[in-house]
């Protein structure tokens, strides 16, 4: 996994307004979500939500705040299908 490449694609998603921050906002927009990235040490509500997610790529990370260049973010979702597929494949080391 190349963090610099993932950071670049996440920044591109930010510029394209294709990121949703926070569990409540993700629940509101669940029809157009293609990738969910969350921290490994997240709380019970996030873990319960993730366990019920179907047909969406899900990735657990240790360094979400570093990837997003923000503070105190536990979960984020991507709404752009192409960027979501690229970022997910970067996490998996497929590209």
Written account of the structure:
With 95 residues, the protein is an alpha+beta fold. It has helices at residues 3-15, 23-28, 44-51, 64-68, 81-92; strands spanning 19-21, 35-39, 57-61, 75-78. A 4-stranded mixed β-sheet has the order 1-4-2-3. The mean pLDDT is 91.
Q: Distance between termini?
A: 10 Å
The CATH architecture classification is 2-Layer Sandwich
CA radius of gyration: 12 Å
As for the number of domains, it is 1
Mean pLDDT: 91
Report low-confidence residues grouped into runs of 5 or more: none
Strand count: 4
Top CATH class: Alpha Beta
What is the helix content? 40-55%
Sheet with the most strands, sense and barrel status: 4 strands, mixed
- Number of helical segments with 4 or more residues: 5
The helix/strand class is alpha+beta
Key features of this structure:
60s Ribosomal Protein L30, Chain: A, globular, single chain
Can you lay out the helices and strands and say which pair or pack?
Blueprint: H1 3-15, E1 19-21, H2 23-28, E2 35-39, H3 44-51, E3 57-61, H4 64-68, E4 75-78, H5 81-92
Parallel strand pairs: 2-3
Antiparallel strand pairs: 1-4, 2-4
């Amino acid at each position: 996994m190349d963090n610099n490449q993932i950071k670049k694609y996440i920044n591109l998603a930010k510029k394209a307004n294709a990121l949703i921050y926070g569990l409540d906002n993700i629940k509101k927009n669940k029809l157009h979500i293609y990738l969910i990235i969350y921290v490994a040490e997240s709380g019970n509500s996030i873990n319960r939500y993730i366990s019920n997610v179907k047909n969406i790529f899900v990735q657990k990370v240790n360094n979400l705040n570093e990837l997003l260049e923000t503070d105190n973010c536990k979960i984020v979702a991507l709404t752009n299908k192409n960027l979501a597929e690229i970022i997910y494949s970067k996490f998996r080391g497929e590209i």
